[in-house]
Amino acid sequence: MGAIDFLVKWKCFLRRLFIFVLGVTVGVNMTMVIFPSRCNPLTRNMEISGLLRVVYNEDVVLPSHNQFNEELRTNSSQKIVRVQEKSFVNMSSKILSEVIPFFKKLPEKYLRNRKPRRQVKEFLLRPVVEPGPSLIMFFVKSACQYSARRDLIRQTWGSIESINQENFRLVFLVGNCKELFQVRILEEKDKHHDILQANVSDGYKFLPDKVLSAYQWLYYEAGNISNFYGFTDDDCLIKMLDIYKYFKVNRNSLLAKNTVYCGYIYSNESLPSRNPRSKYYVAYDVYSEARYPQFCHGGLILASHKTVADIYRIAEVTERGRFHLEDVYVAGILREKVGNGSISITTLGKNRFSKKYKNFVVHLGLSDNLVTAFHSSWMTQLMTMTIHKGNDVIPGISKTSKQYHATMKPTTSSSLLAMHGFLQNNKNVKKFLLKKL
Ligand SMILES: *[C@@H]1O[C@H](CO)[C@@H](O)[C@H](O)[C@H]1NC(C)=O
Ligand SMILES: *[C@@H]1O[C@H](CO)[C@@H](O)[C@H](O)[C@H]1NC(C)=O
Ligand SMILES: *[C@@H]1O[C@H](CO)[C@@H](O)[C@H](O)[C@H]1NC(C)=O
Ligand SMILES: *[C@@H]1O[C@H](CO)[C@@H](O)[C@H](O)[C@H]1NC(C)=O
Ligand SMILES: *[C@@H]1O[C@H](CO)[C@@H](O)[C@H](O)[C@H]1NC(C)=O
Ligand SMILES: CC(=O)N[C@H]1CO[C@H](CO)[C@@H](O)[C@@H]1O
């Protein structure tokens, strides 16, 4: 071992020790600092001047979207972990913000304008939209094979046609299907007329195309058919009554603003995942800045007619390249680009996955059983409204709920309505539920 190597090794050791002691004594939430076995590349980029400062490079993988890989999970109890090839830095966002400033600007490639180009060449199927105004039209991002999920939505929250005379609409977005699935999609379309199919790939990596196909359809073909448009996933449950209350009460002021509304917002501190194994991985050549602009979690994004049009116009002149995270791209990058950030962004809910009443969307992607998960959340919603389906009227259970009258489509699950009727007729259950609501 040469003298230089020896010195570098000691320097590495001392630095590690210093950072470890700093973490423990100062009590900063520097939960973990992981060094590569070759200490040099990282330590070269680390400077300690009062606060820990990391100038990161390709070698440093930062956690994002709160997604940590297995190594991080299994070793979460340890303060320091060695990793062979990659290095991770996990610090509280407060410390991290000292290290990497909040979002400032988009990468040059997204700021540049190209010649306008439509997102989609052709639509294969279009929905039939009921005439008349609506408060919100929901677009559910789906994929060919998920007909069961679509049916579940048609039987639950998607079956609400109106609340207190304010209409809702529902459209499913799919891309190109394999032959067998295309046959089924055609059957679905004939039955429900609620599918917008664009000639884009159906895969996860092409979600931005799928979502923007809806923007295109709205911009060029659909006309002014709804006050607001909502985008959600086929494993999400929308809390229709809460949405109704919020958008009905504030409709005029919300229409006057140019704002994107999120079920859950990611701040301007959000970091692209640089972990190649992550579903959210974004390479440096795809997104070169250290932070994302604020964006919405894809589980629920709402915008007015005008805001959707503004975003779509920008989409036509903006490169997408290999950027595959549809929520970041549309609600973050494109929104930010419009008029230099003139579309603001705001959040409706506070907690991403919480099932608490106050949130507007329940994300069921992590549930084992979609049907069960939908069931309890949906029942809770249903109980608060008086339901009208055909000639049947089932009153809601709370005293104040009587003012909310929901009309349901024929697709509404009859067993759920029967259950609703049973529950509201059962004194003890009713008492229990009233307490809960
Ligand atoms: C990383 O930091 C976050 C935020 O402080 C914390 O919730 C998480 O548990 C940390 N992860 C590990 C593996 O220590
Ligand atoms: C980042 O977000 C914070 C809080 O929302 C805000 O105060 C700050 O101005 C934002 N910074 C930039 C550069 O947009
Ligand atoms: C879909 O797009 C592909 C390639 O752009 C084209 O070859 C194909 O004919 C299109 N399909 C339909 C049904 O329009
Ligand atoms: C859309 O129609 C509504 C009435 O249904 C109207 O209030 C609104 O201004 C129209 N919006 C646009 C962008 O034309
Ligand atoms: C946006 O801001 C940049 C830099 O601040 C400026 O060069 C550009 O002209 C602005 N674009 C618009 C549309 O205002
Ligand atoms: C990546 C890594 O360092 N993993 C370690 C996590 O902790 C276990 C148990 O202490 C080790 O065996 C792994 O090597």
Structural commentary:
The structure is a single chain. Strands 7, 8, 9, 10, 11, 12, 14, 17, 18, 20, 21 and 22 form a twelve-stranded mixed beta sheet that branches. The protein has a four-stranded mixed beta sheet with strand order 4-6-1-5. The chain has three domains: 3-99, no CATH class; 123-347, Spore Coat Polysaccharide Biosynthesis Protein SpsA, Chain A (Alpha-Beta Complex), CATH 3.90.550; 366-436, no CATH class. It is of the alpha/beta class. α8 packs across α11 and α8 (207-222) packs across α12 (326-337). The protein is globular and about 85 Å long. It has helices at residues 3-26, 40-44, 70-74, 93-99, 108-111, 147-155, 179-192, 207-222, 240-249, 251-256, 305-316, 326-337, 370-383, 414-425, 427-436; strands at 32-36, 46-49, 51-54, 60-61, 80-83, 87-90, 123-125, 136-141, 160-163, 166-174, 195-198, 228-233, 236-238, 259-262, 265-266, 295-296, 301-304, 344-347, 361-363, 386-389, 392-394, 405-408. Bound molecules: 2-acetamido-2-deoxy-beta-D-glucopyranose (6 copies). One 2-acetamido-2-deoxy-beta-D-glucopyranose binds next to α11. Pfam families: Galactosyl_T. The chain crosses the membrane at residues 17-35. It is found in: Golgi apparatus membrane.
